[in-house]
Design goal:
There is one protein chain. By secondary structure, the chain is an all-beta fold. Helices cover 0% and strands 80% of the residues. It is built from no helices and 17 strands. The strands form 3 sheets. It has a 6-stranded parallel sheet, with no helix packed on it. A 6-stranded parallel sheet has the order 3-6-9-12-15-17, with no helix packed on it. The radius of gyration is 28 Å and the shape is elongated. The relative contact order is 0.14.
Length: 335
């Protein structure tokens, strides 16, 4: 039995809290008021990207019995946050608050169990448990700028491949399993409950929360025996995703264009197959289960809005491509 285990976690944070940036109330050594110069801007960025490649293989060949198992496990839990809080900012350029994260996970597990005279058993499993939080936010602030942009973006690409082959003179069994449990929160937030936020933006205020998730797996098992051969293949997936762009408890002191977008994309591909071959009896069974729960919100709550143009958009697209096959062949009986 062979196993590959990967555990990743942590936080990436870019934060400005309780700071005055170019506020006119600030006085220099000469007693002059400080003001923002032309072209000044504020950029607050937090970014986190990770890539995982994992391979597990086990093989066994014996006379009376051959058994093999391979497992690949990946656990990732991290937060990426850009926060501008309790701060007065005066710039003549733009204010940009940006948080983005991505992960690419590729896992493979393969097993072979063979017995020349007896029993051959093979099993493989891939388990992925993923949790990602990406937040770009500003609250309790007074913001003076040409444009204000708050963006949060999360991209995830997860692929799993699991295969088992077994053979035995008396009996053979093969069981591959793929399990992916993932949750994600992606938020672009202007304002918060319990604090007042004021904007003095000359042109455009934009809030963008974007989540793009792609997951795929291939699960295949085959068992062949001179007597009884059975194979089963299982894929289980649970995906929960929240994408939110929100203005809350905010006062727009100046007339500005306002654009709020929450965009969610989830693309699932799952292909599961099993085949059992035996002279006396054979069985093949495949299970393909996918549970998707997504929330996509673009909203304005408890705010004073002065705008010459308002764009509010919540856009969610989910697509699934599934194939499940179970085959059995025997001169005695198949199921």
């Amino acid at each position: 039995i062979n196993a590959a285990v990967n555990v990743l976690g942590g936080q990436t944070l870019a934060s400005i809290d309780n700071v005055g940036v170019n506020e006119t109330s600030l006085i220099n050594e000469q007693g002059e008021s400080l003001t923002a110069g032309d072209g000044q801007s504020l950029n607050l960025n937090a970014a986190s990207h990770q890539t995982v490649g994992s391979l597990a293989f086990a093989g066994s060949l014996g006379s009376a019995a051959g058994t093999a198992g391979a497992t690949s496990v990946t656990v990732a839990d991290r937060e990426t946050r850009a926060t501008l809080a309790n701060t007065g900012v005066e710039v003549e350029g733009d204010i940009n608050v940006d948080a983005r994260a991505s992960e690419a996970v590729g896992s493979m597990a393969a097993g072979f169990g063979g017995a020349l005279l007896g029993l051959g058993l093979g099993g493989s499993a891939v388990v992925n448990v993923l949790d990602s939080t990406v937040i770009a936010e500003t609250y309790g602030a007074t913001l003076h700028s040409e444009n204000l942009s708050i963006q949060a973006r999360h991209e995830a690409n997860v692929g799993s491949s699991v295969g088992v082959l077994s053979g035995g003179a008396l009996a053979a069994a093969a069981v591959p399993v793929a399990t992916t449990v993932s949750s994600g929160t992606t938020e672009a937030l202007l304002g918060a409950a319990g604090s007042s936020t004021t904007t003095e933006v000359n042109d455009t205020i934009s809030l963008d929360a974007v989540s793009v998730v792609q997951q795929s797996d291939i699960v295949a098992g085959m068992a062949a025996s001179g007597s009884v051969g059975g194979a089963g293949a299982v894929s289980v997936r649970v995906l929960e995703d929240v994408t939110r762009a929100r203005m809350l408890n905010t006062n727009m002191s100046w007339w500005s264009d306002l654009e709020i977008d929450a965009i969610s994309r989830a693309n699932i591909g799952s292909y599961v197959g099993s085949a059992g071959l035996g002279v006396a009896a054979a069985g093949g069974m495949s299970v393909n289960t996918n549970i998707l729960r997504t929330t996509t919100q673009a909203e304005i709550l408890d705010s004073q809005v002065k705008t010459s143009g308002l764009h509010l958009n919540a856009d969610s697209v989910r697509s699934m491509d599934l194939m499940t096959l179970g085959l059995a062949g025997s001169s005695g009986g198949g199921a």
